[in-house]
Amino acid sequence: MHPKIFILILFSAGLTAGCGEKQEKLLIDEDKLVNILAEVHMAEGEMETVNMSDRDTLGKSLYQLIMTHYGVRREDFDQTMIILREDPDRLERVYEKVLDKLSKIQAQYPDKN
After folding, report:
1. Is the dihedral of CA 89, 48, 100, 36 positive or negative?
2. Which of 25, 79, 80, 106 is the most buried (most CB within 10 A)?
3. Average pLDDT over residues 80-109
4. Can you give the residue range of the structural domain that contains 33?
5. Domain-embedded: residue 99
């Protein structure tokens, strides 16, 4: 095989392989997603104090309220989470931001005990 053709084939293969590593675009802006996830986690924490029989109904209402507040469809939120679950490193980076946000919120309300 001619050396130039061999190099061209290798270069093309490298470009094709690199294309597979591109991150899929999230349906929700990452900063907005961090805010949504932080609120979802706070809502879930509050639901722990609610009677078990009311939790499911309250949970659905709270999720809908949060999605409406941020102008996000539940389907887009669910699809965004699917995309993130398929990219664990990216999911971890998002959740690090969520934890940082929750820590800042918690620091604003020190325990009064």
Report:
1. positive
2. 80
3. 94
4. 22-108
5. yes
